[in-house]
Structure formats: C-alpha cells, structure tokens
Design goal:
This protein has about 90 residues and is an all-alpha fold. The chain is built from 5 helices and no strands. The N and C termini lie far apart (about 55 Å).
Amino acid sequence: MTRWGPYASAVARWERVTRPAPDPVDGNGRLAPEFVEWIMGLDSGHVTGVPGLSRSAQLTALGNGVVRQQAAAAMQLLDAPGLLAAACCGGRR
C-alpha cells in the first residue's frame, strides 16, 4: 500500500470494488491506459483489449469516455421529481 502514498486507502477501497490496480505507468514512465481503464471502473480490456488501438488512441478513447458511476448518479439526480420540469420549463409542466 505504500506504493500509492497518500492515495493508498482510496486505491485499496477501489480495488475491493473492482480488481487489483494495474501499474499506473508503463515501462517508459508514461501513463498506462490500463490504469485509466481501472480508475474509470471499466472491465479489464474494455478499451485496452481492442485490437489495433495504439496507446495514444486508447488514452483518447478513455479521456473522452464517461465514468458509469458518475453518469448513473447524474441520471438519478435528473430524474428527481420536478427537477427536469423546473430546469427546462421554468417550473411549468
């Protein structure tokens, strides 16, 4: 756990929810797409297992992606009674 410094407890919690954390960097010290995939809560290989995608393309796809847990929370908030009507129609239905 010391490898993650001040983030060790957060990494440990996320590992319990998902799977063991992959290395955050590759052999050249660059951000590893597998780590980004893990942090986003995606299944291993969801992006990194797509044949023919370069590291750069993988990071672009991940960077343009949506974290499912955040999207679900947003949809629940938007589905709150009356919230959509208030936001789009000035409170009128």
